[in-house]
Amino acid sequence: MAESSAATQSPSISSSSSGAEPSAPGGGGGSPGACPALGAKSCGSSCADSFVSSSSSQPVSLFSTSQVHDLIFWRDVKKTGVVFGSTLIVLLSLAAFSVISVLSYLILALLSVTISFRVYKSVIQAVQKSEEGHPFKAYLDVDMTLSSEAFHNYVNAAMVHVNKALKLIIRLFLVDDLVDSLKLAVFMWLMTYVGAVFNGITLLILAELLIFSVPIVYEKYKTQIDHYVAIARDQTKSIVEKIQAKLPGIAKKKAD
């Protein structure tokens, strides 16, 4: 009787013991990158290994379209505030100092942070007599090399825009469409007045302020803005049609 009861209970015992075993990080039972309930040293090393393996298996992408969209629409206020504030500080620094000075100060600030953290972790490891290793090892092991296939893809994508830009420049400067060339001439004439008042850095600062303010304002007042934009577009279209009707070359081209 005892043997039979032990035999009947053994499958349940084995199954519970097998289910109690912690799954390895990145395995089928757990989410990738999650650390098991182990010690601090084991957790750090397993997380670093998982980060390195996942980073080396796929190409590193800095920003995606959705991330840029979330930034300019202030979906995450803290993240957008950091990006907006840091870039604005850099542009204001460039307006006051030279490019070499700004780059030198930025590199010195970054080096001071990383060196201080490296020395701090070394002192902590020496005091606690631990062997955690380099604090930036996970990032040092990331494969940042650009493959030839990815490089050719980026070049091909850039060449599409370069070819479009060249065709547009040829059309405008060789007066393929007189109205478009006149629009460019008027725009450049207006830009001479803008250049007399603002320099390039000031225009970049204004552009950043517009990028981080106009989309959120448009999202909030979309209906009213679309109404006034439609009115301005209709008036501009009627004026352009009147100008085209008075130009003999354009009128003949439309008749053909």
Automatic annotation (TrEMBL):
<keyword id="KW-0472">Membrane</keyword>
<feature type="domain" description="Reticulon">
    <location>
        <begin position="68"/>
        <end position="256"/>
    </location>
</feature>
<dbReference type="GO" id="GO:0007420">
    <property type="term" value="P:brain development"/>
</dbReference>
<feature type="transmembrane region" description="Helical">
    <location>
        <begin position="83"/>
        <end position="111"/>
    </location>
</feature>
<dbReference type="GO" id="GO:0043005">
    <property type="term" value="C:neuron projection"/>
</dbReference>
<feature type="transmembrane region" description="Helical">
    <location>
        <begin position="196"/>
        <end position="218"/>
    </location>
</feature>
<dbReference type="Pfam" id="PF02453">
    <property type="entry name" value="Reticulon"/>
</dbReference>
<feature type="compositionally biased region" description="Low complexity">
    <location>
        <begin position="1"/>
        <end position="24"/>
    </location>
</feature>
<keyword id="KW-0256">Endoplasmic reticulum</keyword>
<dbReference type="GO" id="GO:0005789">
    <property type="term" value="C:endoplasmic reticulum membrane"/>
</dbReference>
<feature type="region of interest" description="Disordered">
    <location>
        <begin position="1"/>
        <end position="31"/>
    </location>
</feature>
<dbReference type="InterPro" id="IPR003388">
    <property type="entry name" value="Reticulon"/>
</dbReference>
<keyword id="KW-0812">Transmembrane</keyword>
<dbReference type="GO" id="GO:0030182">
    <property type="term" value="P:neuron differentiation"/>
</dbReference>
<keyword id="KW-1133">Transmembrane helix</keyword>
<dbReference type="InterPro" id="IPR046964">
    <property type="entry name" value="RTN1-4"/>
</dbReference>
<dbReference type="GO" id="GO:0014069">
    <property type="term" value="C:postsynaptic density"/>
</dbReference>
<protein>
    <recommendedName>
        <fullName>Reticulon</fullName>
    </recommendedName>
</protein>
<dbReference type="GO" id="GO:0071787">
    <property type="term" value="P:endoplasmic reticulum tubular network formation"/>
</dbReference>
